[in-house]
Amino acid sequence: EVQLVESGGGLVQPGRSLKLSCVASGFTFSNYGMNWIRQAPGKGLEWVAYISSGSSYIYYAETVKGRFTISRDNAKNTLYLQMTSLRSEDTALYYCASLTGSSDYWGQGVMVTVSS
Amino acid sequence: DIQMTQSPSLLSASVGDRVTLNCKASQNINKNLNWYQQKLGEAPKLLIYYTNNLQTGIPSRFSGSGSGTDYTLTISSLQPEDVATYYCYQYNSGTFGGGTKLELK
Description:
The structure holds two protein chains of two kinds. Chain A is built from no helices and ten strands. By secondary structure, chain A is mainly beta. Chain A has a six-stranded mixed sheet with strand order 2-10-9-4-5-6, with no helix packed on it. Chain A has a four-stranded antiparallel sheet with strand order 1-3-8-7, with no helix packed on it. Chain B is mostly beta strands. Chain B has strands at about 5, 10-15, 20-25, 35-40, 45-50, 55, 60-65, 70-75, 85-90, 95, 100-105. In chain B, strands 2, 4, 5, 6, 9, 10 and 11 form a seven-stranded mixed sheet that branches. In chain B, strand 9 and strand 10 (about 95) form a beta hairpin. Chain B is globular. In chain B, about 35% of the residues are buried. The mean pLDDT of chain B is about 95. The chains are: A mainly beta, B mainly beta.
């Protein structure tokens, strides 16, 4: 069974940092590009970042470029999102997901709340 | 950046209706488009990938079509369990549409 389990969320003050993790199982993680997608409360989906299977290609949404860093450790089957200079508008449920053709796997999400 | 515009944003329909949801890209996305269904409190679920390929386990009443900048998700006969919000997603550069909320009339 495919599983993606996110962790690392919580309440953080504006301007501070937070690092999310996503542990994968049930599929060959190292073969897949991976994404972070977020959803603010009551709002739609927003793609945040992508990293290719071997970390050669990395892309970010303009809203997070320069503040967020996506990375992965294929030996640990783990995807990361380092978030710095957090703003209130970064408050959202953050999903990790593969989004690769029919191999489309999503975690259940982890909540990040940016508030003083 | 490629913008994705979904219409309508809210759609009310009756059980058994044929329902059409639209998604328009700001530039040609070469059919690199997926459709997702999201129910309240759940992660999105893939319905259609690469414009018109039905994901395994998804009922055949769902279908997708389109090319260039214009794409459509069709539900041939609406069922009560189809009440959800539907999103298109272009994976040329990564953008979701704003969503269509589908409710029962």
